[in-house]
């Protein structure tokens, strides 16, 4: 696609065409003027002139933080959009509902790409797709891997992140993902990652859902979870009002009906 555009467009200058070719060779769809300097061996002022010209001609658009995106990727598949999103901010990785959908643990297709990062960032857009940045502290920023060109949360970490941020993923979908992936991931890693987050409410939600789904967990792992849930009751879903239903074992206010958590068993 790039080659055809470069060869057919008479409006492109020599250095502009060279830049597009080099970006294509390195599969760089998001870049900065610094990378233009590296690719073309030019000075920064020249790089800015080239970038300005390509933007004026409609080949690229400004994103944020001095980053630019090629506009020759119309109809980019989901994996391509995820790769683009990851390049908006570093360090970052795809998680939450987006990761659950990527692993086919939920059929619900999110209209937003959820990107976990260590800094506070405003929501951005890639074309018509929203990119929601979710901030985690440095000690909670772990459990991701490189999948093709995408930094993706591991299955275990995607579930852990979702339990930490119920406002971004419905607990029914998290419960469904947990049930679907019970044979695909390591329960030991799931518990280890959960405890590393040092959040009692997260541990309570995980323990409750594990028992709700009759997932067999080694007694020692279950005991480790319970020892860390602290005192006092937490809301199963902090986005909802408190109910009159309590679970004393996991110190949870069960403000989500059981039928809503396991709805997928009836329709599956």
Describe this protein's structure:
With 268 residues, this protein is α+β, with helices and mostly antiparallel strands. It folds into two domains: 2-70, Orthogonal Bundle (Arc Repressor Mutant, subunit A), CATH 1.10.10.10; 78-267, no CATH class. Helix content is 44%, strand content 15%. The protein contains 13 helices and twelve strands. The chain has helices at residues 2-8, 14-25, 33-40, 44-56, 78-88, 96-102, 155-164, 171-180, 187-196, 200-212, 219-227, 258-261, 263-267; strands at 30-31, 60-62, 68-70, 92-94, 112-117, 124-126, 129-135, 144-147, 150-153, 234-235, 246-247, 252-253. The strands form four sheets. The protein has a four-stranded mixed sheet with strand order 4-5-7-6. A three-stranded antiparallel sheet has the order 1-3-2. A three-stranded mixed sheet has the order 10-12-11. A hairpin with a 5-residue loop joins β2 (60-62) and β3 (68-70). α1 packs antiparallel against α2 and α3 (33-40) packs across α4 (44-56). The protein is elongated.
Quick description:
With 268 residues, this protein is of the alpha+beta class. The protein has helices spanning 2-8, 14-25, 33-40, 44-56, 78-88, 96-102, 155-164, 171-180, 187-196, 200-212, 219-227, 258-261, 263-267, and strands spanning 30-31, 60-62, 68-70, 92-94, 112-117, 124-126, 129-135, 144-147, 150-153, 234-235, 246-247, 252-253. The protein contains 13 helices and twelve strands.
């Amino acid at each position: 696609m790039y080659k055809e555009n470069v060869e057919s467009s008479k409006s492109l200058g020599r250095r502009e065409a060279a830049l597009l070719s080099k970006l294509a060779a390195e599969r760089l769809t998001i870049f900065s003027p610094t990378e233009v300097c590296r690719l073309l061996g030019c000075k920064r002022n020249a790089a800015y002139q080239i970038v300005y010209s390509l933007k004026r001609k409609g080949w690229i658009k400004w994103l944020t933080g001095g980053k630019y995106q090629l506009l020759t990727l119309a109809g980019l598949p989901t994996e391509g959009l995820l790769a683009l999103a990851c390049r908006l901010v570093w360090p970052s990785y795809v998680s939450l509902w987006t990761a659950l959908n990527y692993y086919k643990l939920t059929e619900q297709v999110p209209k937003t790409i959820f990107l976990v990062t260590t800094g506070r960032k405003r929501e951005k857009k890639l074309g018509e797709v929203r990119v929601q940045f979710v901030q985690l502290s440095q000690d909670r920023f772990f459990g991701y891997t490189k999948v093709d060109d995408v930094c993706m949360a591991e299955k275990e970490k995607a579930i852990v992140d979702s339990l930490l941020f119920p406002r971004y993923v419905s607990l029914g979908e998290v419960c469904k993902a947990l049930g679907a992936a019970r044979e695909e991931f390591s329960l030991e890693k799931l518990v280890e990652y959960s405890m590393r987050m040092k959040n009692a409410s997260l541990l309570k939600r995980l323990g409750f859902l594990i028992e709700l789904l009759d997932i067999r967990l080694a007694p020692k792992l279950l005991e480790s979870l319970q020892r860390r849930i602290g005192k006092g009751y937490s809301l199963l879903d902090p986005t909802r009002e408190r109910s009159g239903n309590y679970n004393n074992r996991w110190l949870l206010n069960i403000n989500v009906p059981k039928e809503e958590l396991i709805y997928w068993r009836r329709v599956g």
